[in-house]
């Protein structure tokens, strides 16, 4: 049995152990060598950049090249080939830690965690993930059902998806979420050292039109040997620091739509205020010129707003209202008056 995890403690055999640190259990697969398909670059490789480096991601069909993926927004990629040609074939998800620190990587296929097919929640305390050491490559060949067996990923018609009747709106999608590890030096940081250090409080406020029906999904294939063990991981944040949504099953772009009171950004709390780490295409934020890396140091009359406070202020406004932002961009400060 795989252990359940708690944000402020490890739960083992239904007994909770109170801890002062935030401890999250993850799964560490015995390292396996990557196949030659990993060597593909360009649009066959997704790079998720975080404060400590980069996580690389590929979708690798058996006996073929990695799938071609086109970026369609800050956190979104779409498969640019023929979905029909994939049906019936097995594939793997390859992740590689290009950083000098351990990472927790949560992967969901059709809305289900690759570990035991649990629903993806999007929080460190709720989702089991792979723990990758610096420079480590992990090949996820299927859903891990116990400590020694996985069921292969197989492209299938959507009605055969493992998410059928459970996570229907996520069929045809793969999500990858990255958590950095809390190091001892994060405790007691000097103010000048922790500017915009990630904190719990990630907020996804992007909005988009309803997605079209998926053309393909993923079902279970043959059982294969895949040995894992449980290790501890102290997550720096409650929510993922970076993430990707890979649309492999629709072969269509989903255009973000505007929603009253929503700028179209993803944000996290940092020491200076609210840090923008994603801007949706065709959104109010993009039209206003907001960029990834901007820090909102003042919104309306409030200085150094947290991500939660920024959300509350924006959502309290009606269509046609204005929001006033003071934004730090590098060495410069910019004042913006934005009509919602």
- Strand-pairing-aware structural class: mainly beta
Tally of DSSP β-strands: 26
Give helix % range.
under 10%
Unreliable runs, pLDDT <50, ≥5 residues? 1-42, 189-210, 253-261
SSE order, one letter for each helix or strand: EEEEEEEEEEEEEEEEEEEEEEHEEHEE
End-to-end C-alpha gap: 50 Å
Integer tally of domains: 2
Cα-atom radius of gyration: 20 Å
Mean pLDDT: 79
Share of β-strand residues: 35-45%
What's the shape? globular
Largest sheet: 7 strands, antiparallel
Count of helical stretches: 2
Layout of strands and helices, then pairs:
Layout: E1 5-6, E2 9-12, E3 15-18, E4 24-29, E5 46-50, E6 53-61, E7 69-71, E8 76-79, E9 90-99, E10 103-109, E11 112-113, E12 130-132, E13 137-140, E14 142-144, E15 149-156, E16 173-180, E17 203-204, E18 217-225, E19 228-233, E20 242-247, E21 265-270, E22 273-279, H1 284-288, E23 295-299, E24 302-303, H2 307-315, E25 322-329, E26 332-339
């Amino acid at each position: 049995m795989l252990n359940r995890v708690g944000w402020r403690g490890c739960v083992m055999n239904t007994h909770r152990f109170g801890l002062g640190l935030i401890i999250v259990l993850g799964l560490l697969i015995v390292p396996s060598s990557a196949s030659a398909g990993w060597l593909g670059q360009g649009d066959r490789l997704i790079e998720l950049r975080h404060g400590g480096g980069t996580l690389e991601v590929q979708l690798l069909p058996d006996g073929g090249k990695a799938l071609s993926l086109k970026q369609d927004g800050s956190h979104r990629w779409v498969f640019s080939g023929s979905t029909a040609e994939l049906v019936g074939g097995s594939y793997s998800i390859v992740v590689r830690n290009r950083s000098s620190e351990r990472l927790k990587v949560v992967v969901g296929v059709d809305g289900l965690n690759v570990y035991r097919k649990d629903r993806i929640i999007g929080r460190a305390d709720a989702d089991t993930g792979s723990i990758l050491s610096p420079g480590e490559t992990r090949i996820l060949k299927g859903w891990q059902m116990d400590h020694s067996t996985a069921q292969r990923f197989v492209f299938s018609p959507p009605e055969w998806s493992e998410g059928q009747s459970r996570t229907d709106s996520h069929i045809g999608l793969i999500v990858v979420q990255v958590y950095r590890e809390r190091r001892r030096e994060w405790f007691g940081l000097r103010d000048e050292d922790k500017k915009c250090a990630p904190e719990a409080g990630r907020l996804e406020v992007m909005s988009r039109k309803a997605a079209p029906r998926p053309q393909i999904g993923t079902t279970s294939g043959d059982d294969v040997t895949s040995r894992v063990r449980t290790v501890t991981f102290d997550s720096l944040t409650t929510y993922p620091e970076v993430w990707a949504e890979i649309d492999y099953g629709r072969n269509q772009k989903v255009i973000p739509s505007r929603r009253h009171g929503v700028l179209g950004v993803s944000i996290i709390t940092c020491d200076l205020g609210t840090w923008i780490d994603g801007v949706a295409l065709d959104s109010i934020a993009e039209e206003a010129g907001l960029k990834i890396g901007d820090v909102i140091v003042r919104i309306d009359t409030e200085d150094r707003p947290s991500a939660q406070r920024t959300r509350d202020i924006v959502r309290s406004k009606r269509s046609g209202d204005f929001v006033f932002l003071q934004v730090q961009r590098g060495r410069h400060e910019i004042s913006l008056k934005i009509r919602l």
